[in-house]
Amino acid sequence: MALEFHSFADAKPFKFLVGKAGKPFFVHAKLASHQSSTLATLIDGAMVEAEREFAVFDDVEEKTFIRFMEFAYTGDYSVAEPVVVPHQPDIDVENGEDSRGGSVSPKMTDDPDAYPPDVLEEVQVEEPDFDFPPPPRKKDKKKRITDPWAFSGDEPAAPEPPKKSKGEQLWESFQDEAIVRAPSPWRPTTNSDDSEDYTLVFLCHAKLYVFADKYSVEPLLNLVLQKLRLNLSRFILHSRRIGDVVELLQYAYENTADYRDGIDRLRDMVTDYVVCHLEKIVGHSDFGKLLKENGDVAKDLMPKLVRRLD
């Protein structure tokens, strides 16, 4: 349940030293305690952090903590944007080929002496010989034939609505603006081509999930999983972007716990996605390497693959 603003507006702030640099961030103590019982113990309990009135989060990135603060104050958080990585093939101008074996035209300059005669002949453009047809003759306008039986009298004009006074117009304008404009719901971006790298997008969710899981912020955990699922659902898995998903999978398994019974929720979601697109992902070198180095990935994938075969 959201905490009423007036209940913590006059409360003292609690300091968090975040990241390796220990950058200070301040959150109203009562609001931070309201997020989870774990944070409440840290801030108001018998721990040393409560006594000295600050906590050190040196294993949390600044951007991740800012998203937590945003959630604490607004109930939502901003998602990272994808990074555009355009194709940049290496070009060998001397041999006239690019890195993919395609031909490359010679680089043009303003100096005509820099080219052999045969090149100049190829690029020389002759002036076109235009032969325009004569303009069409204008057709004689036919005389309009009037209907001798048509009614020639004046039709009665429709009555005009009564004019509103300036005061009435001002009141209507005032009423038209009486609208509460609610914020539009969050919509995930969709990659239009394979130049958009979504690694930062996926990891911003995953890192916030790890933070919320460590400090038992259950509402934030649920929101992160919803947003990540939306991003993955709209994500077009181009072959060049398979590494974005593999990196998310690797981060999830390196930073969440392995349970004897059951599976971590972040691991569960990402492996569900991998199983759905296994034909594309299985041949990726980083995915094969991850399977060899982390046995938990294969352990969690196998039951899902069996269910898919059934």
Automatic annotation (TrEMBL):
Domain of life: Eukaryota
Chain segments carrying region Disordered: 89-168
Coiled-coil features, chain-numbered ranges: none
PANTHER family assigned: BTB DOMAIN-CONTAINING PROTEIN-RELATED
BTB domain ranges (all copies): 12-81
Protein's UniProt name: BTB domain-containing protein
Biased composition (Acidic residues): 119-130
